[in-house]
Specification:
The structure is a single chain. By secondary structure, this protein is of the alpha/beta class. α4 packs parallel to α8. The chain is built from 8 helices and 9 strands. The structure holds 2'-O-acetyl adenosine-5-diphosphoribose. The site of 2'-O-acetyl adenosine-5-diphosphoribose has 23 residues, from loops. The site of 2'-O-acetyl adenosine-5-diphosphoribose (OAD) has 23 residues, from loops.
Length: 235
């Protein structure tokens, strides 16, 4: 870090931070997401066409969360939140619960959460750890046929945007970790913060995104680069 000590930090994480816990990223070389075209399993149209396929896809991913644990990068960000004296917000695009389990609290899941389900009849969102199906009844309105993963699909509006933009507009340091920063609006976050001359932008990634708006890029595995950065910020 070459500038003055930041007061306000916003961190954006993506799938790369959970790779070393055993969860795959989205953009594999084959362009498929665990064997499926993204629009098949991550769009309202896909769900309307093949609800069973979409439920099966997310049921497997929800069940897989039982097999994984937060890694050193998740734990380091929870430590940063606990020990940092200034403002802090962690925004994640990840639908896994590894940041939550690591202890992060000032955390926004902008693409929703695998461990939540939403009723399309009444809109209620509930904590959910088991499988969903078209027969699942909503715990609030008791109707069946309306339960879906409480996840933001392509074409839907991400969650908590107002809180994200408020924090970004006040950040002195913006750190993007393990994200290809290709999906909007997260892709626009870096443009927004880089437009403010006082905000420093830092990318921690396995492979560089090539986005010229990052002032600094540190390449490597998140379990190494994130604890190093946190130790540096708290020193
Ligand atoms: P991507 O799969 O697009 O990018 C993952 C990033 O993680 C890449 O930049 C990799 O270089 C990096 N990476 C891989 N292993 C890593 C490691 N061990 N340490 C550090 N970095 C590593 O995932 P996201 O950017 O999260 O949206 O994708 C954004 C959104 O697109 C997702 O939230 C999802 C997806 O479609 C929705 O579901 C709406």
């Amino acid at each position: 870090m070459t500038r003055d000590r930041p007061q306000s930090i916003v961190v954006l994480t993506g799938a790369g931070i959970s790779v070393e816990s055993g969860l795959p990223t989205f953009r594999g070389a084959d362009g498929l997401w665990e064997g499926h075209r993204v629009e098949e399993v991550a769009s309202p149209d896909g769900f309307a066409r093949e609800p069973l396929l979409v439920h099966r896809f997310y049921n497997l991913r929800r069940a897989a969360l039982h097999q994984v644990e937060p890694n050193a990068a998740h734990l380091a960000l929870a430590r940063l939140e606990r020990e940092w004296q200034g403002d802090f917000l962690l925004i994640t695009q990840n639908v896994d619960d590894l940041h939550d389990r690591a202890g992060s609290q000032r955390l926004l899941h902008m693409h929703g959460e695998l461990r939540r389900a939403r009723c399309t009849h009444c809109g209620a969102s509930s904590s959910w750890v088991t499988a969903l199906s078209p027969q699942t009844a909503c715990p609030s309105c008791v109707q069946t046929g309306g339960m879906r993963p409480d996840i933001v699909w392509f074409g839907e509006v991400p969650m908590h945007l107002e809180a994200c933009f408020t924090a970004l507009s006040q950040a002195d340091l913006f750190v993007a970790i393990g994200t290809s920063v290709t999906v909007y609006p997260a892709a626009g976050f870096v443009s927004l913060v880089a437009a403010r001359s006082e905000t420093r932008t830092l990318e921690l990634n396995q492979e560089a995104t090539g986005n010229p708006l990052f002032h600094e890029v540190r390449l490597g595995r998140a379990t190494e680069t994130v604890p190093e950065l946190v130790a540096e910020l708290l020193a």
